[in-house]
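User: hey, got a sec? need Radical SAM core domain-containing protein folded
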Amino acid sequence: MTTVGELKDQLWRELALKAELGINGVAISGEALELIQPGVKAQEQVHCLFEMDFEIHTTELPSHFQLPHGLTVPFRWNPKSTYRIDLIGERTVLIHGNEVLADVEFQPRPKFYGAKTSDGIEMSNIGAHYAQRHLFIVYSNECSYKEKGEDCLFCNINYTRDVYGAERPFWKNAKQIGETAAQAYRFGEIDHLTVSGGIIPERRELDYYLDVAESIQRHTGLDDFNGTATVAAPLDLRNIDRFKESGYRTTAMNIEIWDKGIYNAICPGKARGSGGWEHWVKALEYAAKVFGHGRVRSNIVAGIEPKKSTVAGLEYLASKGVVGTATVWCPNPGSELEGHRSPEPGWYLDLAHKQVAIWKKNGFSYQQIYDCHASSDSLQHDIWRIEDELLPVFAETKRLVAAE
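Assistant: Yep! Here you go:
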């Protein structure tokens, strides 16, 4: 009989494996793809913002899979990876070299993916189903920084649009989004949604988000639809109040880099076109007062600047009531930093542990962390769920131990 302590040991090992797969990616055999059938049986990738695989592809690939104890791993295809998913009989297994590490399960295709909007667009092209019951809606896969040659150097949003743009509508209107959100809620497949996209002119962004909130409320019948508005820091801070008044529970403004000098070099568009680093921080502090403690998020792309700087940013943001996050940096194809290397998996695990400690020290609840994220499959979320025994596998283990 496995004890809770033994289960935690197994989960920490599983988390280390997840970190390896996030940094190094995973290959998959044609036989495994034929069995799981992404886009038919298994949930397929939707290139709504970024290409997160190591190489572009025309083959339909799965979005994510689960390890034996319930940790969710985003599928990052790397045909050169030493990790691969293959078949043993009818089992899909993760293999490293010649060693079978674990059986893995792929997420079934969401029910709402097969539905269509009233104007005939497949809902999978309007909103992507992210791990842990999140709906991620991207209004448009464009960023206006491209026009001035000022894309963030780690970002491949415009490249992804150029490569995969024919897959889905260039611009999703408010009605399509409202209908898709309503269907996902109706099927009981989501508890939270995020609206996001590239940088567009401020007034256009504000009007659009207000229209989307109204449409979601009308189609779902929910005044509080647990939505996050992911926006650029507005030059007119009063616009933040309008996002809150329109019905969004949380907001996100991603600063990307904490070190000011590195920020100016890596994020030229944000440094020159959105008020700069100082204004971005000011907007986050203001948003925390409007939305409340733990209801505002800002992400740092971890691994580009020194860890010490990232931790300093996470600590400062948390002290102001802002949930700072630090995601794994993927040197995406088509970005200016393509071909660079992320730090080692252990680097990210250490940072994730520090991040969870900062969250807890500053009084954030897990529900707040859940609500303000676009997805809850990060290393940090897993650490919190392991530490506080929130994963479903804990309840089952405790039940079996009690019955013994």
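Quick note: Residues 4-106 form one domain. Let me know if you need anything else on Radical SAM core domain-containing protein.
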